[in-house]
């Protein structure tokens, strides 16, 4: 893991590439994106995928909720720490995020904001997880971004459905510290 705090890295590199397949992996290796959210992989190929990114100088956070062949248990975080060169994890589960922090990994707590109940649950969950950052999905809701930024004490990443320049600037203007997108055009911003 890089010794630089994740919020500082996001200030320096506010566009995060969300990589969901092999084509995206190849594309991100040709891009200038330094931070990568890895949204795919299996128990068998994860170490090699992470190694390709690390060998190219990327900071890699693995979405442990999307890995094939793993159960949703803390042992997955330990596997990522001990068997890969990943810098951190993403998860929608507070206990997974907290486990990553305890193991010295960067930890991003993901939230799918679909209604007022999921919004009200966000701040208490962040306090439990002790996340470095929060990612909200969809990230194309400037009004909601302002609410969340006011409720939490960690940087916010706007992810999901951030499709173009207008979405990027609206999210950043609303208080997001960074943008995570699988849209390769956004990676070039």
UniProtKB/TrEMBL annotation:
InterPro entries: Aldolase_TIM, GlpP
Origin superkingdom: Bacteria
A Pfam family reported for this protein in Swiss-Prot or TrEMBL: G3P_antiterm
Transmembrane annotation, as ranges: none
Protein name: Glycerol uptake operon antiterminator
Native organism taxonomy: Bacteria, Bacillati, Actinomycetota, Actinomycetes, Kitasatosporales
């Amino acid at each position: 893991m890089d010794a630089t705090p994740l919020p500082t890295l996001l200030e320096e590199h506010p566009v995060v590439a969300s990589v969901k397949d092999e084509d995206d992996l190849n594309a991100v290796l040709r891009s200038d994106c330094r931070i990568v959210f890895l949204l795919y992989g299996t128990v068998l190929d994860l170490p090699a995928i992470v190694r390709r990114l690390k060998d190219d100088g990327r900071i890699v956070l693995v979405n442990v909720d999307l890995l094939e062949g793993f159960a949703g248990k803390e042992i997955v975080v330990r596997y990522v720490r001990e068997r890969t060169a990943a810098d951190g994890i993403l998860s929608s589960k507070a206990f997974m995020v907290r486990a990553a922090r305890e193991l010295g990994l960067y930890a991003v707590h993901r939230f799918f904001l679909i209604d007022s109940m999921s919004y009200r649950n966000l701040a208490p969950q962040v306090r439990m997880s002790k996340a470095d950052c929060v990612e909200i999905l969809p990230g194309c809701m400037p009004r909601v971004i302002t609410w969340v930024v006011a409720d939490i004490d960690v940087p916010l990443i706007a992810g999901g459905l951030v499709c173009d320049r207008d979405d990027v600037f609206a999210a950043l203007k609303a208080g997001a510290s960074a943008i995570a997108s699988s849209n390769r055009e956004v990676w070039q911003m």
